[in-house]
Design goal:
337 residues, Alpha-Beta Plaits, alpha/beta, 7-stranded mixed β-sheet, two-stranded antiparallel ribbon, elongated
Length: 337
């Protein structure tokens, strides 16, 4: 008797992970498939797709499971998954993360927001929405988001054996990073126990999300000289939110002494200054704020600040846009500033 709760027409139970480079979705997919194959004797496969191996660029990881007597001869990307895991909410801006989701499918999102807010962003009409604060767990345990997401995925895929995953975690980390084994086990268990669910009624005759395969805007004829990566997390599109792994610096002007220690360590010239006069009438530059369009959340400025005017802040959707102070760069004419 099959232990898989659902199957498509080819006999597969399919999972798609939507992430950005740097959050460990590729490794998570490998570990998830390994736990199902070695732990339960299922047939399974895993592979990932990504463009440039750059922090912040979109990554997809695909996992297929089937009964031991079914051969996996389909190695194409998963277009109609039963489960989708979203590792970073910044993906909403440029990637249709729920493309092809079945009407009774399950979406897991790394988020601290309310169910209704996330559902509205995803345009989720039916099925089940699962939320877990994977980033918060990872920060507290000093690990990574992927292990917490794996814990939540095992709670969702209740046919999988959590003990099999714990063995895979121990095997994966004990040789190269033995000091991280127990922390990752705790992260996995917290993801498993702290994930929350809310189901929405599936209307009779409901159909799933249409799958759309994004077409490249630029080809070999239209590509400009030098080329441009048009994914999020690049300064050409002025959107670095994909490169931030959930944190950015907050600025308290009242505590700032305008010492420029932050500007000295910032690799991306994010700080905006304005000329003014001090109490004695002398000319001086004053820190006006941060241009978050160029900030990748490295937090070097927080470490350098001597007065706590800059603090580490967990990023929420819309914060960067609301608190951004725009740079006043001079116009470029004839290639000379």
């Amino acid at each position: 008797m099959s232990i898989l709760p659902k199957k498509n027409e080819l006999g597969f139970y399919e999972i798609r992970l939507e992430s950005i480079g740097g959050l460990g979705a590729n490794l998570a997919g490998k570990m998830l498939a390994e736990a199902g194959v070695l732990g339960l004797g299922l047939n399974g496969s895993n592979f990932s797709t990504y463009g440039s191996e750059k922090k912040g660029t979109p990554v997809k990881s695909f996992v297929r499971f089937c009964d031991p007597d079914v051969e996996i001869r389909d190695h194409s990307p998963i277009e109609q998954p039963h489960v989708i895991g979203v590792f970073h909410e910044a993906l909403y801006k440029t990637v249709n993360v729920v493309s092809g989701l079945r009407p009774d499918g399950i979406v897991l999102v790394n988020s601290t927001r309310d169910f209704d807010d996330v559902r509205k962003d995803l345009k989720l009409e039916s099925g089940t929405l699962a939320l877990v604060d994977a980033l918060g767990i990872a920060v507290e345990e000093k690990t990574r988001v992927n292990t917490a997401m794996l814990g939540a995925l095992f709670r969702i895929c209740d046919f999988l054996d959590p003990d099999a995953m714990r063995k895979v975690i121990r095997k994966t980390f004990e040789k190269r990073y033995p000091h991280l084994v127990e922390a990752n086990l705790r992260t996995f268990d917290r993801g498993y126990n702290e994930v929350r669910f809310k189901s929405y009624e599936v209307p009779e005759g409901a159909v799933g999300k249409d799958f759309t395969r994004p077409k490249p805007l630029l080809g070999y004829i239209t590509q400009p000289i030098g080329g441009v990566l048009t994914a999020q997390a690049n300064s050409i599109l002025k959107d670095m939110s994909g490169s931030r792994q959930g944190f950015l610096p907050s600025f308290d002007r009242e505590k700032c002494i305008h010492c420029a220690a932050c500007d000295n360590v910032c690799p991306d010239f994010c700080f905006v200054w304005e000329e003014g006069e001090d109490k004695r009438g002398r000319k001086q530059m004053f820190l006006k704020g941060i241009d978050y369009q160029y900030c990748k959340g490295c937090l070097k400025c927080v470490e350098a600040c001597p007065t706590d005017a800059l603090q580490e802040l967990r990023e929420t959707i819309g914060y960067a846009d609301e608190h951004r102070v725009k740079q006043n760069f001079p116009l470029v004419t004839g290639g000379i500033l």
